[in-house]
Structure formats: C-alpha cells, structure tokens
Specification:
The chain has 449 residues and is α/β, with parallel strands linked by helices. It is 41% helix and 23% strand. The protein contains 17 helices and 18 strands. The strands form 4 sheets. An 8-stranded mixed β-sheet has the order 4-3-2-6-15-16-17-18. A hairpin with a 2-residue loop joins strand 16 and strand 17. The termini are far apart.
C-alpha cells in the first residue's frame, strides 16, 4: 500500500502528457546549437516543452515514455518540391536530358497510364519512402490531387497539394479551367484538414501561356495561395523563352505579377546577377533540387550567391523518376558539397545551414513556419529521430555535422507527425509496406507492357 501511494502521489504532482521523448541530443534548428540530454513533452499533437531530462521527469508523466539514449532529435525534414506519384516511374527512363526524358518517355507514359489508381498507389509508395527517410512534410505537384490527398490523410504525413495547371489536356482535365475548377474544389473539400495545405501549381513557363499565368496570379492574390512552378531549370528553357516571348522566363513571370513572396520556384539554376537581385527584391522562395539538376544535366544552381542575398532556399528531391530517390539526407549533403565546390569556398553552406534549408526554410516557403520546420513549444510535434549508435557515426564531435555529412536515411528510427507516431524502430505504423511493394510491381508490369 505504501509503495502504491507513493507512486500515485508522485504522478498526481506531475502533468500528464501524451508522449515524453528523451534523447541524447535535441536540435531545435530555429535556435542554433544542440541541446544535450534533453526531453520533449508532447500533448495534443503539439510540443508543450523542451527541457533537461531530469527536469522533464520531475514535471511530466506519460504512459508513452520514449527513451532514445543514442539518438539525435530533429524537426521532420521538408521536401519542398516533388511529384510523389511519379515514384512508380523510378528508373524507367534514365540518363537523358530533361526535354527528351519528358517528351519521349514520361509524358507518353502518363497519357496512357495515369489515373486515380496510379496516383493513389504511387503516392502511397512515395509516402512510405519519405517517412522511412525522416520526411514529415512534402510539397507536391501532380494530376488527380484528390487521390494524393486521400493517401496523405490515411498515412498521417503532412503535405502541400498543388492545384496543377498545364496548357494541354490530360486524363485528369480537359483544359485550363477544368484543371483549376477541379483543384479548387478539392481544396474547398479539404479546408478543415490540418495536415493539408494547397498551392496553385502551373507546371512551367514553357507549358503555360500568359493568359493562364495571369489567371493564376489573380487567383493567388484572391485566395492567398502560394504559386509552385518549375523555373529556369535548363538553358534551352531560357533560349526558347527569348525566341518566343522576347524575355527570359523570370522576367516574363515578373511582368505578369507572379514574382512575389507567394512564389515557390523549383530549380532556379541559370540566373544572372540582375535576376538574383530581382528575385530578392520581390521576396520569392526557391526549391533547390541538386540531385535532379545533376542527373538531368540541367546544371548547378548558384546557391551561395542566392543565400548571400538573403533569398529563402529550401530543398526538394524532385520526383523519384528523375532523382531516383526521395532522400533528403542525400540532398542535404549534396547541397552543402556542391555549394562549396561551385563557389570555391569551403565555408559555403555549412552543415547547420543545410539542415535549416531542409527543415525551417522549406516550412517558410510553404507558409508553415509557424506550425512546423523547427522544434519549439507551441509548434506541431513533427519530429524525426536519427540513431547514432552505428560505428559509422562514431566518434561524434558535432551531431549537426554528422547529420549532413555522415548520417543517412537508414539511420532514421522514429517519425512523429502532429504528435502521432508514424515510424517506430524503422517500421511503418500506418502503412502496409508489403502491400505497397506488391502494387508497385503490378504497375511496373503495366508500364513495361
């Protein structure tokens, strides 16, 4: 009786929370540095407190007390540019330049096969890969967005859904108005879903005309939605724009009123100093996709110059059809290394900046930086745990450096989104991985035939 009473009284003195998470290191990102031997109290999907373990144990009680003695806890990674369903086309047409890849393989395959089932199964495969790699939020652009939204809500990840617009008919929509009407109807239907946000997603300047871009600009201002677009990805894109429109693509968008703090421009590789200054002045955001840029031989973005101007840069994988991985650890490392090599400056994009680009900067671009992207009280508990117990991560002088230059997605052990555990000891909680792989094989046979 005495022992029971002691335990009961102790618990009564503490605040009960949904999850109490202890770790060797906590890396908040928004506040620079590393917190050693700290804990996070999570309640109702939010971070309630971050404090030393001893203090946490004296103030909080939880029936779900997770102790990760050899782990670093970081904000969930944010994939700022991808096309999730295209994961079903991973490796289908490799070692080709962008337009040959699109025109000869990807667009024909999409015209024959992309439907609601394709997008559902492809997005499910992508979500499984992203969650296992520590990604808690992604910014998507693809057809049949309702199918993608259904998967996102089913598995519990966070995402921005693109209202995709392109000046050509598809199995999804017959014309520009059809694309917009269907996309905005899905947005209206999902407005009360806290894990979903929406943006307008015109594909690219070369696939969307001025009339359509003007319509996008007006809608973006009326609805206060971001605009997510491919921009300045290749030299041919710029050459063709000069021939057809008399200006480079960025200047064309600027004249149409689209360069603003609402703009998320994917790639942004080939830029003049004047264009960098313009982009900085009007406050756009960039989704840097280093692996896809290299694999398609599109080029290397001037990341150091852009950061020196104060331009907000997040990191994206692009699709698994052009990458071929949805691996933000690989993208962080490549972002840092390319910036150093391109600029002849070893101090360009240090590890802490690469981690910020993969988390808080991406959230800021999506308008979510008050909700996610860093670890602080009041924000959503979107959390990734990275296991440092492997010999390949020893010794560790600086866990932030190790996260960028040493660790890989195979070290991700746990993932929470909005306080909900979605990956536990490397195993998916809300998704059936065996079934997902079976569906992927079925689509492989269909695409080959």
């Amino acid at each position: 009786m005495g022992l029971f009473s002691f335990g009961y009284d102790s618990f009564m003195d503490k605040r009960n929370v949904d999850t109490l998470l202890e770790a060797r290191w906590i890396i908040p990102v928004e506040v620079e540095g590393t917190l050693a031997e700290h804990a996070i109290a999570i309640n109702n999907g939010l971070i309630e407190a971050i404090l030393p373990i001893s203090e946490a144990n004296s103030r909080y009680y939880s029936s779900n007390h997770v102790k990760l003695d050899n782990h670093a806890i970081i904000p969930g990674l944010i994939n700022l540019h991808t096309h999730a369903a295209m994961t079903l086309m991973r490796g289908m047409a490799d070692d080709l330049p962008l337009m040959a890849w699109l025109k000869n393989y990807i667009w024909p395959a999409e015209s024959r096969h992309v439907d609601t089932c394709f997008v559902r199964d492809g997005t499910m495969l992508a979500c499984a890969e992203m969650l296992k790699g520590g990604i808690t939020c992604f910014n998507d652009m693809y057809f049949f967005p309702q199918a993608a939204a259904d998967v996102i809500l089913e598995c519990g990840i966070r995402a921005g859904i693109g209202v995709v617009v392109i000046d050509m008919p598809s199995a999804y929509a017959s014309d520009v108005d059809d694309y917009i009407d269907k996309g905005l109807a899905i947005r209206d239907h999902c407005l009360q879903q806290p894990l979903l946000t929406f943006c307008l997603a015109p594909h690219a300047p070369y696939s969307v005309n001025d009339q359509t871009l003007t319509k996008i600009m007006i809608l973006a201002e009326q609805l206060q939605l971001p605009v997510h677009i491919h921009l300045h990805e290749t030299k041919d894109e710029i050459k063709n724009s000069l021939a057809e429109n008399g200006v480079r693509p960025l200047m064309r968008l600027h004249k149409l009123g689209l360069v603003s703090p609402n703009l998320i421009a994917a790639h942004m590789i080939h830029l003049t100093d004047t264009e960098i200054e313009l982009f900085h002045e009007y406050g756009g955001h960039i989704a840097h996709c280093p692996t896809s840029n290299l694999k398609l031989a599109s080029g290397i973005a001037p990341v150091e110059k852009l950061l020196q101007k104060g331009i907000n840069i997040g990191i994206g994988t692009d699709s698994a059809a052009s990458n071929n991985r949805l691996d933000m650890f690989a993208e962080m490392r490549l972002t840092a290394l390319l910036a150093k090599g391109y600029s002849d400056n070893a101090e360009a994009v240090p590890a802490r900046q690469a981690l910020r680009m993969a988390t808080l900067n991406g959230a800021r671009a999506m308008g979510l930086d008050q909700i996610t992207g860093s670890l602080s009280p009041g924000k959503a508990a979107d959390i990734t745990a990275v296991d440092f117990s492997s010999s390949s991560l020893s010794p560790c002088f600086d866990p932030i450096s190790h996260l960028v230059y040493v660790a890989g997605r195979e070290q991700v052990s746990h993932v929470w989104v909005n306080g909900r555990l979605l990956l536990n000891e490397g195993e998916l909680v809300t998704l059936d991985e065996a079934d997902i792989m079976q569906q992927a094989r079925r689509w492989q046979h269909r695409l080959v035939s």
